[in-house]
Fold each of these.
Amino acid sequence: MKQYVFTILFTAAITFGLSWGVWRLSLKYKLYPGIRERDVHKTPTPRLGGVAMFLGVTAAFLVSSQNPFFAIVWVDPIAVWAILGATLLIVLVGVADDLWDLDWMIKLGAQFLAAGIIAWFGQLQIYSLPIGGVAVVSSWVSFTLTVFSIVVVMNAVNFIDGLDGLVAGVCLIANVIFFAYSYLLVRDHGASTYFNLASFIAAVLIGACIGFLPLNWSPAKLFMGDSGALMLGLLMATSAIAITGILDPAIVGDNDEFGRSQLLGAFIPILLPVVIVLLPLLDFGLAVIRRMRAGKSPFSPDRKHLHHRMLDMGHSDRDAVLIFYAWTTIVSMSFLLMYIGTQYQWPGDYMLGVAFGVVGVAACLVVTLLPSRRAAAAPPSLQPTREAVA
C-alpha cells in the first residue's frame, strides 16, 4: 500500500507543478478560446490542463518501471506502451479540438483508433464476463466489445465536463472507490501480490486529479479540456478492463469464493466498474437520445446536460458540483459495501450497502430538488434564467 500512496503523491505533485506552468504559459501566449454560448464561465480560460495531467501520468508510469514493486505491471511492456501511446494520441487530438474546434467525426475516429490500439496492441480486452464462467466466444466480439466500451466511457466522462472541478472531482471519487475495489478483489482472489495494472492506473488517476483540482476548483484558473476528460475516460475504462484479466470467471461466479449471495457475488465485479461512472453514462445516454430525436448529431453540443439542468433549478455552480460528488459517492460506495458484505459474510450480507444507498439516495434527492422550490418562491428578478448562467 505504501507504494501506491507514493505513486498518488508523486503524480499529484508533478501534475500540480505542470498545471501551474501550463496555466502561466497559456495566459502569457493567450492559448485559450473565446466564450461559447453553452459555457457557464464568463471569462476566457485556458483549456490545456489535460496536457499537464498527461505528463504527470506519463511520469508516474516511467518511475514505476524502475520500481521493483511494480515489476508485474511491466511484465508485458507492450501493453503499457500501448496504453501510453493511445493516451498520447487522444490528448493530442483533444488539444487540437480545444484550440481549433475539430469536427466531431475526426474526434470520434481518433477515439476508436486509440481504443483499438489498447485492445489490439495492448491485448487488453474483455475476454470473459464473470457470470458463472461465461466467456466471449469470438476474438472479434471481444475486440469490438472492448473498443466500444472504451469509446463510450471516454465520451461519457467528456460530456459532463461543464462546471469548475466537476470532472476532476467525480473521477477522483470514482477512482478512489475503484482502487479500493480492485485492491480488495485481487487480495481476496488469492493473488501472490497486491500490485496489478488496474489498481496502478487507478492510483495514478487519483494523483492526477488531486494535482489538477487546486487550479480547476471554482473559480477555475485552468480547464482540463477535451484532452484531459478524454484521457481520464480512456484510462478509467482501461483499468476496468484490465481487472477482468486477473480473475478466473469460473471462480468469480462461484458462491463459495464470493460470498453467500451468489447473485451479488457474480454480478458486483462487473457492475461496480460501471456504477462508478453511472452519472456520466446517464448524462451521455440522455444526450444521445435527446439529440437524435431532434434530428441532430449525437455529438452536437447543447446546453441541456444534467449539470446545466441543476443550474436552471437554482443551484450555484459549486453546489451543483458538490451534488454530483455526493451522487457519485453514494452510488459507488453502496456497491462497494455490498461487495465487502458478501465477501466477508457480514451480518445481513449486502444489506448494509443497500441501506447506505437508500438513505444516501433519499438525502441526495432532497438536496437536488430543494433549490427548485426556493427558486419558485423567489421574486421574478431573483429567479435564475438560462442567460444568467450561460
Amino acid sequence: MIDQDHKLGVKEANLVSRKLQLSGIQGQEAEALVAEIEQQFGVDRVAYDPDAGTLAFSYDATHCNLDLVESILSKRGAGFATNWWNRTKRSYYRYVDQNIKDNAGYEPHCCNKVPRK
C-alpha cells in the first residue's frame, strides 16, 4: 500500500495495528465509541467485534498512541480488559509506539561525509 490508501495524517511507515479485548461496553455504546476513536487525527481504521468483545484499530504511531484510545474508552465508561494477555500486549504496544515516535525524527548520518566539528 501507499500513503494515499490511508486517511489523512497516516503514513505507511508508521502504521501500527492493534487488537485488544474491551470490558464494560454495551452494544449501542460501541458504535459511538468507534465513531469517536475514528475521528482522531492519525487513526486509520477502527472495528469492534461484539461477539469476541475486541477492538481492532490501526493508527500512525507518530500522531496517535494507545493512551489516547484508552482515555476515550474511560470517558465512555469502558476500558481494556485486565487479563494477563491484554496487559502484556498493552505494555508491548506502548513500548513500540514510543520507539516509533522517537525514531521518526532521527536523521541518519553517512559514513562518507566529513564529521562536523
